[in-house]
Predict the 3D structure of the following.
Amino acid sequence: MRTEAAVVREKNGPFQLQEIELDELRADEVRVRLVGAGVCHTDAVVREQIYPTPLPAVLGHEGAGVVEQVGDAVVGVSVGDHVVLSVNSCGRCRQCLAGDNTYCADLYARNFGGTRPDGSTALRDPENREAISSHFFGQSSFARRANVQARSVVPVPPDVPLELMGPLGCGIQTGAGAVMNSLRPPAGSSIAVFGAGAVGLSAVLAAQAVGCAQIVAVDIVPERLSLAKELGATDTVDARDGDAAERIKELTGGLGVDFALETSGVAAVLRTAADSLALRGTVGLVGAQAPGQETSFETGLSMTRGWKLQMIIEGDAVPQTFIPRLIELWRKGRFPFDRLVTFYDFADIEKAFADSAAGGTIKPVLRFATSD
């Protein structure tokens, strides 16, 4: 069948809306009609080829939609189900079998490789038969319809606003999961979140939900710091005004924070996050840095501080169980991630990316026409 998609054809190139050909559904796939798709920083860094996916490609990895067809080998999903689309994994390696699917041994190939595991792509240009990379994060959801790997599919209740749910598949899940699944700060503890974008503000929401007594948001955009205060941050630090680590220590009575989360992907900020820790503190890293990037740390006196560095992918979440938990928290008013979202028509995808890069929009979400 044919469907409309946003295709990136070259490094730093635009998203071009065009008709593409979608091939036959495989036994382990689900065909989804997209209702909404979040715009994430990972889509931008792939377009920039910092994390290379073969081009031309259809990106998009925070999809939400309605199931139209189910492959013969798929269980637990039916035609008409409302679903959120998330990270892909093999389900067979040691990490997947232990429930650590975000550290799947085949994680990069299944999410960034541009093909199915057998090397085939679901997408072609109908005019010249050129292959187009598909299955980005198992989905390639910058399209009106997608053949999605079953392990990327998360059924959600039919009464929640489906167009809002897509960001739970990556950005919101990453920030919230880093707090709730990875760092696990106990009630009454302190945490600093570096970067008040979608991931960082999701971490702020999660820190409030789990009962952190002191939540410090760090950024360079005053409007984002103001929003962080509205969402539960007890303190804010403008990183343009002096040494952020020293300011955090002042706010904590000279102790530093028990936990810190770095979401910006900037090496110098990760060093600052580590320097802001209290004795035996832990810093988590979710901000994507370029492959080969290095960060220097003080290692002499650090031995007496006993701090830890924890790398985190997708909030250490199992999407099929974690996303429903976030939805229930949202229903109860304890996780208002909807306040981060600004909607755009699918045709305005370039504006959505530009507004996000400029810092004016926290979490852009593309909406597809419901009449299709």
The chain has a mean pLDDT of 95. The first strand starts at residue 2 and ends at 8.
